[in-house]
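Sequence of Olfactory receptor 4L1 (Sciurus carolinensis).
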Amino acid sequence: MDHENGSLVTEFILIGFSGQWELQIFFFVTFSLIYVATVVGNILIMVTVTLSSSLHSSMNFLLGNPSFLDMCLSTVTTPKMITDLLAEHKTISLRGCMTQMFLMHFFGGAEMTLLTIMAFDRYVAICKPLHYRTIMSHKLLNWL
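Predicted 3D structure, token representation.
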């Protein structure tokens, strides 16, 4: 009895926003504006922290990295969702879905790790302020 399932899933149909056309246009404009604001805001934070010599402390370095990770995390899924709002056939391939899931977990995990490092940085700054420079050296910061 070697009966195998002969079906093969190659794409998924997305029907989350398949309502009225006017509502889809409203969502397209709203999500596009929010996405552009997110990307521009995060780029401004990264550029400001990188170019300003007075912001080259460990905490400001740690503030630039979450901006990068946040921008990457929002770029993983939002453009596909925005383009699907205006598309006739709202589908995503199996590989595209798996890639999105992997990247969301990867960037989400990296952001959680970075938040843990930031919490450790603040702990050292508050509980051991006189030893902060020796504990949070550039060597440790680069390793973290």
